[in-house]
Write a structure and sequence with these properties.
Helix 1 links the parallel strand 2 and strand 3. Strands 1-3-2-4-5 form a 5-stranded mixed β-sheet. It is globular. It is of the alpha+beta class. The chain starts with 17 loop residues before the first strand and ends in a 10-residue tail after the last helix. The chain contains 7 helices and 5 strands; from the N terminus they run ββαβαααααββα. Helix 2 packs parallel to helix 4. The model has no long low-confidence stretch (mean pLDDT 92). The protein has a single domain, classed as Glutaredoxin (3-Layer(aba) Sandwich).
């Protein structure tokens, strides 16, 4: 008797966006959930998404600074588990709201707050089922020159400067002028 191989499709962080899929500008951040500067940047990103509705899309990539924040890796994994239920952004925001309380048991409680009903959530977290996806983000960030977080990229170009609404808006406006309405999917990512 032959057994067929079951291949589960995993939704990786690089494939999770918020905003219009046809937006001409892609804003990408490398960050982690225990970092105060990343939490502040998350609030700025929310403002940008509202202000540039339909013109930008946002992708968050994990860059856990585990020497400083020991729980950032598991928090990133929790967000990837949430993505498997289509709840990445809900979990993303809950994790930032609870960034001082990210132990494994707390992450399970936070998953309920984010609306995740996955029975195997805790097992997947304990067994690092999605750990490679967080590590993949980290390695990609290193390859792109990320040293510290938050690190932003606008249409693939590194953003230099403090990630304030004003500074990022200025760069996004410049990117919008360059693209002249072309969807981000047609540009270099």
């Amino acid at each position: 008797m032959a057994f067929g191989k079951v291949v589960a499709e995993v939704i990786a962080p690089k494939d999770v966006f918020v905003g219009s899929k046809d937006a001409p500008v892609t804003l990408m951040e490398f960050g982690e959930y225990e970092n105060e500067a990343c939490a502040k940047a998350n609030e700025v990103v929310k403002q940008l998404l509202e202000h540039y509705e339909g013109k930008i899309r946002f992708n968050f990539r994990h860059f856990p600074l585990t020497k400083i924040h020991q729980r950032s890796m598991k928090a990133g994994e929790a967000a990837v588990v949430a993505a498997q239920e289509g709840k990445f952004w809900e979990m993303h925001n809950v994790l930032f709201d609870n960034r001082r309380n990210l132990g494994t048991t707390s992450l399970k409680l936070h998953s309920k707050e984010a609306g995740i009903h996955r029975k195997q959530f805790l097992d997947e977290l304990v067994n690092s089922t999605y750990g490679w996806y967080v590590r993949e983000d980290l390695l990609e960030g290193v390859n792109m020159g990320v040293i510290d977080v938050p690190a932003f990229f606008i249409n693939g170009e590194a953003f230099k400067g403090k990630p304030t609404f004003e500074n990022l808006s200025k760069e996004i406006d410049g990117a919008l002028k360059k693209t002249k309405g072309k969807p981000a999917s047609k540009q270099r990512a």
